[in-house]
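Troubleshooting log. The previous run stalled partway through. Resubmitting the same two chains, unchanged.
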Amino acid sequence: MRAGIRHEFLYFALRNAKLRVGLSILLLFIVAALIGPLFARYDPNAYVGPPAHPPSPEYWFGTTTFGQDVYSQFAHGLRSTFVVGLIGGGIGTLLGILIGLVAGYRGGLLDEILNMFTNIVLILPTLAVLIIIAAYLTVRGILVESIFIGCTAWPWAARAIRAQTFSLRAREFVDLARMSGRSSLKIMLTEIAPNMMSYLFMTFILQFGGAILNAATLDFIGLGPTQGMSLGLMMNNAVLWAALQLGMWWWLIPPGAAITAIVGALYVMNVGLDEVFNPKLREL
Amino acid sequence: MGLRVENLRVYYRTLRGYVRALEGATFSVADGEIMGLAGESGCGKTTLGHSLIYLKPPMTYIEGRVFLDGREVPIWDMKRMNEFRFRRISIIPQYAMNALNPTRKIGRMIAELLAAHNVDFNEILPELKRRLDLVQLSHDVLNMYPIELSGGMRQRVVMVISTLLNPSLLIADEITSALDVSTQKAVCEMIVEFRNRGFVRSTIFITHDISILYQIADTIAVMYAGQMAEKAPTEVILRSPRHPYTRMLIASLPRVGARYRQERLHGIPGAPPRLLDPPPGCRFRDRCPVAFERCQETPPFVEVEPGHFIACWREI
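Second attempt completed without errors. Output:
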């Protein structure tokens, strides 16, 4: 039975062009993030070469105004971008699912309390809180940044999932499951969640992309990681030191293109996965 | 032993007060009995059926007791009811065709449902297949998604699932309403077959179609505005009803061979009372041709002949 399901899922997944394209691009970048830094010959922040050097066999992606190796920055930045996306997006999605499902399925007083909590976090001035936190944390890493992004990004996901749950819990099959004596937890996990699986995945994708973009924003106002490198930091350095005006395209384009490609691939994948998850959208 | 319901009162809680949808229902259903529950829309048929398995808010338990096979059923207790649901009291809902999770294959859905009741799927699989044969479904449906089946097939699947653990009580809630006549017949025959083979012991068949009950029910209970009006064996209800509402209801059925060009089909004049604040006494009073002063009091539901219960002051 189990093997059959997996087999069928794979069958439809592998036939879906959108999923194949999205997944290929994503895998390409994941591989690049995993093994790319192994080929980086320099420390991403060290001043190793001539300033503003265009791409060459020695410096694959060229160097920055200060003579840092762009390829090393890119490879390390890609890695931390995935870390931020996974951890930040993961925390945001999990919190959103948990709070949204429970509030939507249970309803009543619990829903009131959770919804109020959601709204409070939603209207929290993220930037102001960030500045305060940054003032206390003098040493910030990628990990802390991602956790903080995840903990502030969940409210809209929770609200959307709550609304979906509200609509699904009134459906006939959920009603019958209740009348068949299934527990609330099982109903949430096997009756309600699978019916919005594609939506949950989309939430994760949006959270993933949102976390990457949020991290870039934080980097820009000087609240990013004090150690390490990220694609956002690269772009902002490039903008700060007028890479565009000086014609240093090699400093600007790799991080920008990578972020766009990663987020875009995730979106395309999402549409493909929707078609795989939902038997009604499957094409034989 | 069967099912025994004593003075069951279930209201709907609303902002403007309680809607008295089920007022003091007392009746019993014997082992192997198919009881038809008839009445017009909004008379409390479904409220009665659902209250025996799942009190969905805003349904509120007021009073009354329910016994199944001599054991009390705690219908007011959501948690404790879980051991009764599906295993001992089961329902085929009105919307049976949409009652399957669209993201689960039917076999997997059944396995999960059985696991929730600590029953091993593989152990029951041979019996499940026998029952699928009985309702003329291929075993392949277990490996299919609900959208791959027709509406009628889905309903049969739900019927098989609902009766899989041989419940003592089966509630069939208007299962024929959305079907064409030939499918109606097949579904009704299935309900009788389930009873004859001992898959279910007692059945409550909720419908507003009395002609269907004539085919399959052993007894018929007629409800009016939340109260039981009359319960008797099928023949008695159809041939010699005694409650004025039942009489008018039966009289309003179209007769085979009758011509309605000259004589119009008769209905019952008036409308049922609002249940938010119903008048005291017999609720049929305002529409009843034989009402008198005594009808200001609520008539008791008494047995006038063996197996024949009536709630009417004229008849007791």
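Takeaways: Chain A touches chain B through 25 residues (CB under 8 Å). The CA atoms of residues 140 and 226 of chain A lie 5 Å apart.
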